[in-house]
Design a protein that fits this description.
327 residues; alpha/beta; 8 strands
Length: 327
């Protein structure tokens, strides 16, 4: 991911939000995600959506607004994390690890197992599938991370909005709400702010937010790759404007299936390998599996109902760039 990391500390009003990572590498993020090649679309037939374009994000989470303001003014180091040699095992969890029956009807918790005791870090999912739906047991998962002294980072699934969501959030951002693509970017921006607010509510800290770009069963992306890319562009800017580093989680084929050749600027990458092995997950760190030209940070594979992760070569020497330590 990218440049110097802004951090969030919500003081007496809110829990601290984002901690700065370690040293900046040559793969630091740009100050803002690059403009996409997405052209200007005509306004929607329904006219200007709701929201308040004069105050970007005004209808979004108040927690996210406070986080954004403080991120610009506060910078703190993350907890000390000793450098490691070789690769380091971790895991990732989200709503599937919630108790059965918990969550939105389409994405009910499955009671899947928590990470292995040998996992040194956990990447926590912020959403219950699509955007604007919080992981229903995130607070208990944060507690588990603290109780087990694991390093932590976060990821969030991004999704394509329905018409009602565009109407609600199409002006909640810095883009021109008189165009269809501008509205979609603003919806992505609002998704990011919603997720930042979710973090604040449970006192979750992370130096980076991984943007999950892949098909979302039940909540499908559109068939228009430029429209999909507009949402992701807005999501990325929403996090960066709030002081977070960003990265992308996907595979080359899934990423292209959703957003085509849209370039996030070579942000760092968390690469999925599927139901396979640690060896194959490490293989995904290679140049052949680049998603959009960024540094390979993590490889992920699935084994015995767990999402397992391994750091790519060279990453373990400075884990503070990618994870927070609560203790």
């Amino acid at each position: 991911m990218r440049r110097a990391v802004g951090c969030v500390a919500l003081g007496l009003l809110l829990p601290a939000l984002a901690a700065c990572g370690g040293s900046d590498g040559p793969s630091g993020a740009p100050a803002r995600p690059p403009s996409s090649s997405v052209g200007t679309a005509s306004p929607t037939d329904e006219g200007k959506p709701g929201g308040d374009a004069g105050d970007p994000g005004d209808d979004a989470s108040d927690l996210a607004k406070a986080a954004e303001d403080l991120a610009r003014a506060t910078e703190q180091p993350t907890g000390d994390i000793a450098p490691r040699d070789g690769d380091v095992l971790g895991g990732d969890i989200s709503w599937p690890q919630c108790p059965k029956g918990m969550g939105i009807p389409q994405k009910q918790g499955q009671g899947l197992p928590m990470p292995l005791p040998s996992a040194e870090y956990v990447v926590l999912g912020l959403t219950n599938g699509p955007g604007f739906t919080p992981n229903p047991c995130l607070a208990s998962q944060v507690k588990w991370v603290k109780d087990n002294d694991k390093l932590v980072a976060v990821y969030a699934v991004s999704s394509y909005p329905d018409a009602a969501t565009v109407k609600d959030h199409g002006a909640d951002g810095p883009y021109d709400a008189s165009t269809t693509l501008g509205q979609l970017k603003n919806v992505g921006y609002a998704q990011a702010r919603f997720n930042i607010g979710t973090m604040a509510e449970v006192g979750l800290l992370s130096p980076i937010i991984w943007i999950d770009v892949e098909p979302v069963p039940v909540f499908e992306w559109s068939g228009n790759l430029k429209a999909n890319a507009a949402v992701i562009e807005g999501v990325a800017r929403g996090y960066v404007d709030a002081g977070f580093r960003i990265g992308v989680y996907s595979t080359p084929s899934l990423y292209a299936r959703v957003v085509g050749d849209f370039d996030l600027g070579g942000v760092p990458e968390w690469r999925a390998a599927g139901q396979t092995s640690r060896a194959e997950a490490l293989n995904r760190c290679g140049a052949d599996w680049s998603i959009q030209g960024g540094t390979a940070v993590l490889g992920q594979w699935v084994e015995q109902q767990r999402d397992l992760n391994v750091t790519c070569p060279g990453i373990a020497v400075d884990l503070g760039q990618w994870f927070h330590r609560f203790t």
